[in-house]
Write a structure and sequence with these properties.
- The chain is of the alpha+beta class.
- The protein has a single domain, classed as Hotdog Thioesterase (Thiol Ester Dehydrase, Chain A, Roll), CATH 3.10.129.10.
- Helix content is about 35%, strand content about 35%.
- The chain is built from four helices and six strands, in the order H-H-E-E-H-E-E-H-E-E.
- Strands 1-2-4-5-6-3 form a six-stranded antiparallel sheet.
- The longest helix has 23 residues.
- It is globular and about 50 Å long.
- The two termini are about 20 Å apart.
- The relative contact order is 0.20.
């Protein structure tokens, strides 16, 4: 299966249904970056009429994780990936449409190459910023991923 925005969105329906039903969608992915969109709706709002922080986290995590999945798919080898730490900051109410972008595709490729060559799990911090419709940052997430190739 090719790793595309639509294939990842289909994957979320069955493997990450909470992300799918709260409206988390990959809108673009390539070797360099991944962008995920979430629109404020009934299922993902909090009592303060903004997007629940955990839904923002799902969007941000998917933007980083999908980038790793895309790069791992190119290797044709079995690997595991896991978030082992995360950090987040929130700077503005998240209303409307929020885009989370992780532009670190080249760093992901370097980590994957190191894991392949050394057979040692690699750790990499990936960052995603959530921007609203006017381009203001509403949240920023960082995830420490570990990548390990299976024998």
């Amino acid at each position: 299966m090719r790793i595309t925005a639509s294939s990842i969105n289909f994957f979320t329906l069955f493997k990450l249904p909470s992300a799918y039903f709260t409206g988390v969608r990959v809108i673009s992915i390539d070797e360099k970056q991944c962008t995920v969109r979430v629109r404020l709706n009934f299922l993902n709002k909090n009592p303060f009429r903004s997007m629940f922080w955990a839904v923002q986290g799902m969007g941000a995590e998917l933007s980083t994780g999908a980038l790793i999945m895309h790069a791992l798919h190119q290797t044709n080898k079995k690997a595991s990936m896991l978030v082992i730490e995360n950090k987040a900051t929130f700077s503005k109410k998240a209303v409307g449409r929020i885009n989370f972008t992780c532009p670190q595709g080249e760093a992901v490729l370097v980590a994957i190459d190191a894991a392949k060559e050394t057979h040692v799990p690699q750790q990499i911090w990936l960052h995603a910023k959530g921007l609203d419709e006017v381009g203001d940052e509403v949240s920023s997430f960082s995830f420490l991923w570990t990548i390990k190739f299976k024998n």
